[in-house]
Amino acid sequence: MTAFEVFVSKDTFKFNAAHFVAYKGFRERLHGHNYKVAVRLLGSRKIGPDGYVLDFGCVKAVTKKICKDLNEHFICPMRSDVMAIVVKDDESCLNGGTITLTCEDGSVFVFPKKDCAMLPIVHATTEELAIYLWGKILGALNSEYLVKRGMHTMEVTVAEAVGQEA
């Protein structure tokens, strides 16, 4: 059986974000990365009548938008098991309110809500960001369409630095 692969990695698949990793007994210092994202789709069918396995344009538009939405934000792991996270909405305020994180070690961080990407992850690690991005990209690409085009596997790679990717 013929196999096809579509790999897309563009300069626009990037975002700059602050984060720290916290787990039982440990908390990193607040810092940031210039993240880069790549998407690989594997298929088992022949090239479609339009000449494509899958149009790169679809993958580029979706991935670029998701990266743009994360750019210049603090990655807030809303499902953390070691931080108390309080979201205080204040629509009268320009920043929309605040997010307060109280860590196991007693450290307290207060961020403007508009500066936070509140993600459904436990840890703000590259691995969990890759899983999150995989779900967002898959949802935006329409899985039924991907299956119709013969795609059976999607891989999302997130790099926080050269040689450090998940």
Description:
The protein is an alpha+beta fold. It has a domain at 3-72 and 121-165: 2-Layer Sandwich (Tetrahydropterin Synthase, Chain A). The chain has three helices and twelve strands; from the N terminus they run βββββαβββββααββ. It has helices at residues 56-70, 126-141, 143-148, and strands at 4-8, 14-19, 22-23, 26-27, 31-43, 73-77, 83-89, 97-103, 108-112, 116-119, 151-161, 164-165. Helix 1 (56-70) crosses helix 2. The radius of gyration is 18 Å and the shape is elongated.
What fraction, in percent, of the residue positions are helical? 10-25%
Number of helices: 3
- End-to-end gap: 29 Å
Please report the first level of CATH classification, the CATH class of the domain at 3-72 and 121-165. Answer: Alpha Beta
Give me the secondary-structure category: alpha+beta
Low-confidence stretches: none
- What's the alpha carbon Rg, rounded to whole Å? 18 Å
CATH architecture of the domain at 3-72 and 121-165: 2-Layer Sandwich
Cofactor: Zn(2+)
Protein name: 6-pyruvoyltetrahydropterin synthase
EC number: 4.2.3.12
Keywords: Lyase, Metal-binding, Tetrahydrobiopterin biosynthesis, Zinc
Write the layout of secondary structure elements.
Blueprint: E1 4-8, E2 14-19, E3 22-23, E4 26-27, E5 31-43, H1 56-70, E6 73-77, E7 83-89, E8 97-103, E9 108-112, E10 116-119, H2 126-141, H3 143-148, E11 151-161, E12 164-165
Parallel strand pairs: 2-6, 6-10
Antiparallel strand pairs: 1-5, 2-5, 3-4, 5-11, 7-8, 8-9, 11-12
InterPro entries: 6-PTP_synth/QueD, 6-PTP_synth/QueD_sf
GO molecular function, one term: metal ion binding
Protein name: 6-pyruvoyltetrahydropterin synthase
